[in-house]
Write a structure and sequence with these properties.
Distance between the termini: 67 Å
Oligomer: single chain
Number of helices: 6
Strand content: under 5%
Number of strands: 0
Largest sheet: none
Radius of gyration: 21 Å
Length: 153
């Protein structure tokens, strides 16, 4: 194993720097995906209906895209990656990142499935909240089925 990889980059430290880049990419993108996962406490997030609505929340989508771009910039800008952040860009390690993220998504969906099956249904405290939830659900379903984004009718 290489010596003094925390001080400077050398060819001996290439494996260590690539490993740091792999972990950085995995954790950064996992946190960005977790933000989407938190949109629904018990319902499945990664089904076709929710994937089509991926860009619905403009701020969340902008945060996801900008976080991913910043992750890539941190990994591939020369000097910044090896001198400041002590990591290096990755190549075949993206496969490790994607597999890890897929495992994360599967485990989070299994956790939500267990919550739906084992816990009591989530209740809404007041009749007013029930009414507002019904209106929101009807409007959402109407908008997604008609393709209309205008909220006024």
């Amino acid at each position: 194993m290489a010596q003094h990889c925390n001080k400077e980059y050398s060819e001996e430290c290439d494996l260590v720097f690539r490993a740091r880049g792999t972990v950085f990419a995995t954790l950064t993108i996992a946190i960005l995906l977790h933000a989407y996962n938190c949109r629904r406490i018990r319902g499945p997030m990664w089904n076709w209906h929710m994937i089509k609505r991926f860009h619905e929340n403009k701020f969340l989508f902008a945060g996801f895209v900008s976080g991913t771009v910043m992750c890539l910039l941190c990994m591939y800008v020369p000097g910044l990656n090896t001198s400041v952040l002590k990591m290096k860009g990755i190549s075949w390690e993206w496969g490790i990142v994607l597999i890890t993220l897929l495992v994360f998504i599967i485990l989070s969906e299994l956790y939500k499935f267990a919550k739906r099956c084992l816990l009591k249904p989530a209740t809404i405290a007041t009749d007013e909240q029930v009414r507002l939830q019904r209106i929101w659900t009807e409007n959402t379903l109407t908008l997604t089925h008609t393709g209309n984004t205008d909220l006024e009718k």
